[in-house]
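hey so u asked for the seq, here:
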Amino acid sequence: MIYTIQDIINGILMGSIYGLTALGLTVIFGVLKVINFAHGSMLMVAMYVAYWAIQLTGLHPYLLLPVVVPVMYLFGYGLQAVVIQPIFKAEKDVREPITVIIVTTGVWYILDNLTLLVFGPKYRALVDNPLKGKMLEMGELLISVPRLYGFAAAMLTTVFLYWFFQKTRAGRAIRATSLNREAASLMGINQYRVYNVAVGLGTATAGVAAVTLVPFFNVYPTVGVLFDIKGFIIVVLGGLGSIGGAMLGGILIGLVESIAPAYMAATWSEFIVYGLFLLFLFLRPSGLFGLKQDW
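ran it, structure tokens below
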């Protein structure tokens, strides 16, 4: 029984971090209505930013959130303004321009290969890691401190994003644009600035995820692919555009990956995850919390 409880705790902790990596993806989709195939690469860039910031300063990883998050926000804002915004302007009559998907796929390959060119294929881990191997003992249960911190960061980020979109003027402007960008423009909202802010927020969220991952996960040029695939599965399970759904979907994936290997071959856990993905696509394409209307 104790081992099952241990697996459940581990699954929830790691699943919340999976959900955190997918939050930015669902935020961007909720506003732009297009899938950002470069999101995993943005997470990879954020992990490199976090890694080098920690290595150069020697500070605790979480103390560098005020550095990593703004840097990634500006990165996402600039990428949207320079690369993606011209497409929306050229295809302003198309609600979901397919060209954006093609462009973000190109950004994915450019970022991954540019990083490989600059840093090489080497796997990097923190040298002086204050969280390495730290465990919290609760009777017979052992809880990973880095993952516990990640769980706290994921919950706080989820609450903040929900509050921002529901309670702030800027959040309501973003929601209005996601529902009907033409009507929002008539009300005086600059839709292109909203898109820039939305991508900036999504990328900043990837910055938070990067800080939680770097203390216990290797950094390398293609690390984003792993979380990109899981991110797409998570947002389909939770519902495209649903913030709470992304977190719940991540926890569901984490539980499957943690509990399934105790009762069957580890490879079956991947089969179950992809099976759930296909099942939801067929039976409930809107996901657990997906609605017919946006947001």
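The chain has one domain: 2-120+146-283. The CA atoms of residues 26 and 57 lie 32 Å apart.
lmk if thats what u needed
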